[in-house]
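User: Can you help me understand a structure? I only have the sequence.
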Amino acid sequence: MKLKIIFFLFFVSTNFFLCQTIEKSENKKIELLNKKVDSLIKIQNESKSKILEERIIQATETISNQNAMVSSFGTLYTIITIILALIGVVLPILTYQFGIKPSQKALEDFEKNSEKKFNEFLKANVTKEIDSAIENLNNQDLAIKNSALNFLSLNYHLGISNLQILEIIKFLNSDFSADETVKSQLFNTISNHKNENVFNFFKEQLKGADEKSIIIFYSIKSFSFFDYLLYNNVLKDYIKKNQNLLTVASYMFSVANHHLLDFFNDVEIIKVLSSDQKKQINDNWKYYIDSWKISESDFKETELFKKTKTE
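Assistant: Let's start by predicting it. Here is the structure, written out as tokens:
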């Protein structure tokens, strides 16, 4: 019985020991396994962390590259925008400077040259027609002669050269100009030009003119382009001979109004007036100044009024 109990106790202690040993062994194994697991977990975590870190670094690099690319695109876009803006500003300027402006200048030059050539053509054509008309003044055909006279009378404003004026004066001094109508038309043609040859022609013509001659009107018309003192002596001789100051004054009012007061203050002309002429002026001066458009106060200041009033 005791043996059984001892054997039982031995078996129990043995089993307990074995159990303890096994338990310890198992615990060690478990501990080792736990360590391995922890090591694996740590390795895995480290591996994951490393991979994650690498991925994060890669992602960061990718993002940086993308940002750099986007920034590059932004810079490129800005540059392209600036270039396009410059093109938008510069291109119209270049188009104007090298396209439109030269074209405008070329057009202006063309217009100027065209106008100049056209005017030269017209002038040459008018010169030819005037030459032809002057030549036809000597034509025996009355119709051709009258046509020439009409052309000169109507177109003298287009411009008659000094040479052409001399040809007309030559004709007037010839026997072909005996007709008073012909003379009157040609006097009108040349008297509308400021020309010394015309001025001298009328001075000579006025010397032998009588009171009724049409030459006085055209002479004063020609004289009006020059200074009064250049022709007053001729007027004095004409008035002395014909005693027609009032007629001369009327013509002067019509075509040389700016010389009228000079005329009325010319003492030398007043000296050659006859008593009858002075009396006529004294008796009717109010009527005359009205037709001459001179104020009473202005006329009373003239030598003509003073000399005729006192006598």
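Now, to help you interpret it: The chain has 13 helices and no strands. Residues 228 and 259 are 6 Å apart (CA to CA). Let me know which part you'd like to focus on.
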